[in-house]
Amino acid sequence: MRIHFDEAKKIFEIQTNNTTYLMGLAYDRYLAHAYYGSKLEDTDVQYLLRAPYETEFEKYWFNREKVEKMDSLCHEYSAGGVGDFRDTPLMIRTEGGYHACELVYDSYEIMDGKPALEGLPSTFPSEHGAAKTLEICLKDELLCLKVYLRYSVFEDSDAIIRSVKVVNEGKEKIYLERVLSTCLDMDNEAFSLYTLHGSWARERDITGRPVTEGKHIVASLRGETSHQNHPFMMLTTNGTSQTEGRVYAMNFVYSGNFIAETELNQHGYVRMSMGINPTGFEWVLDPGAAFVTPEVVMVYSDTGLGHMTRTYHDLYRNHLIRSKYLHQKRPILINNWEATYFDFDDDKLVDIAREAHEVGIEMLVMDDGWFGKRNGDNCALGDWFVNEEKIRCGLKKLVERVNAEGLKFGIWFEPEMISPDSDLFREHPDYAIQVPGRTPAMSREQYVLDITRKEVRDCVYGRVKAILESANIEYVKWDMNRPLCDIGSYGLDREHMGEFYHRYVLGLYEMQERLLQDFPNLLLENCSGGGGRFDPGMLYYSPQIWTSDDMDPVMRLGIQEGTALIYPLSTMGAHICVCPNHTTGRVTPIETRANIAMAGTFGYELDITKVSEEDLEKMAACNKLYHRYNEIMREGDYYRIASYRETNYYDAFACVTKDKKECLMTFMNVLYRPNRQSIKLRLAGLAPDAKYRLEETDKVYSGDLLMKAGILVEPPMGDFFSKQYHFVME
Ligand code: DGJ
Predict the structure, then answer these.
(1) CA–CA distance, 398 with 421 (Å, rounded to integer)
(2) Does ligand 1 lie within 6 Å of residue 412's CB atom?
(3) Would you call 549 a catalytic residue per the annotation?
(4) Residue 438 lies in a domain
């Protein structure tokens, strides 16, 4: 890792182990982007720092053709209103209503370390690698506005982390209408754009299309990351595979409205930008005030998707997730949601715990329905008091009873919500997000709490805290089951209402920070109606996130492939579901459900008191395998071997320990294909010269052979067969 400024040539150089990022001054004023890609030793790129179509001679006519130059230069970060007609990362408005803002280079600073972003999740240096940060200051003289571009790198990573700070040094207010975290202008190399999309129960499906003229926007306006679109995009060159091709990726460390945009202009330049969604956003910057954007993690790979994926996995494990549970095997849990829904009581939970202990399950999670008068999904959110008609022995006693059965105890909350039919709403109707005079639209018969207001956060958090203090509770599932709309807050005046969405996310982060400070031993799992808020922002607070309400192993192949494209397997909440599955009706063998769930945090969501003896025995066997294999999945390097999306009938992925001594490949034959008895799978990430023994057969292969020639798997007749292959270095 190296950050350097060449004073003579006015070129900034950022080096990671395998990549180089270069920018410099164009026309002695503007910070222009020169290069991002494979490592360069020769960084003399001054000749690239000008508008694309001009001749050497025309460069001296700058003022005559300034608009064309502003519109075609590869800017590092440009502002709107002075000739760059692409979507600019910064758009401001003055008190007088003017938009023009011209950012010119002012100064720079190179620092050891990486400053944290106040109130926001951010990557940090750790024992895995120190950090260096470059901060470049751009300014608009007339507005007295300074824009600080921050770039951080870590010793052990190829990622570059960017964020922006805007400071108003003038005497008048400045209204920020759009302030994104990154902008990356470069040549279009016949790129394809890949993004992640979906819906409830089918999140993060990998979707691609060629980059064509105009704009392509992926965004959320739901106040959360969303099931539908994901704050991730990557551009890939033709023929990109797991091991080949150039990939430029961006992922946003944020949990609210976002925008990820690509724009191809008339000169064949593509602009990638990412940040807080400007729709519905406006921030008032008072004189002397600063606004800091969340950060974007950029990764470039010239060896295909696999290197990009592993760079994100390692960065998030080494520099983002703070939880002490990150490197620990999480307890195998059983959650009562799909077992009982709202129909349970203390005895039922203890019965589940007793049976669960028999097969080696380690924690019981009491899901929705234990509080207020909650016997359905239409009431009581906000009334975080134990329903003693259901939990007749009281919470403390219930937890003691579950602990006595040998299980830890976890609990579900939905702290950001308020039911119209709740005592909290009857007492404080103004606590719900709303526009005065308009009845807010309900979703799941609930409203959203206005957590932009401190008194609302204090009230709800106080109730959550009291519950957690009342018993030996070791895990919390923090759920969020509807998007935000009818935006309005009694805590914000007309001028500041545009700050609502961002303040909501800041309020959420503040509440989760408080939870972690007050309960440092708590294992926190975030969740949003399944996987609607699976993002790097939430990973800063919780080491695991519920990936999807869909636990059907076939659906999970796509959901987990899309999620694992960026996020480590140790972060993916994954459980064995009841059969037939409640979202698809599909009947699958328990071993298959187990193998797919083992690629995540592992647990169960079924009524174990109704499971057959045969399945109980299988569950006990699966739990033993989880203990044996979890470390490989949790800490290893992830390799995509084959994708059901592409093969249409089978899927395979592998994890290899960092020392390359063990490899676990998970295979699933989704649909049996007649007259195709064996499938060849090439492994990856092994030591070519080492010998590996396949545990099941004791047959020994060289790493080289396994990676080049592969092994043959022979699925039996029938659908949904799955198997794990464990290779151990001799
Ligand atoms: C949505 C979650 O994803 C489910 O697991 C469950 O907790 C329900 N909410 C409860 O309402």
Answers:
(1) 27
(2) yes
(3) yes
(4) no
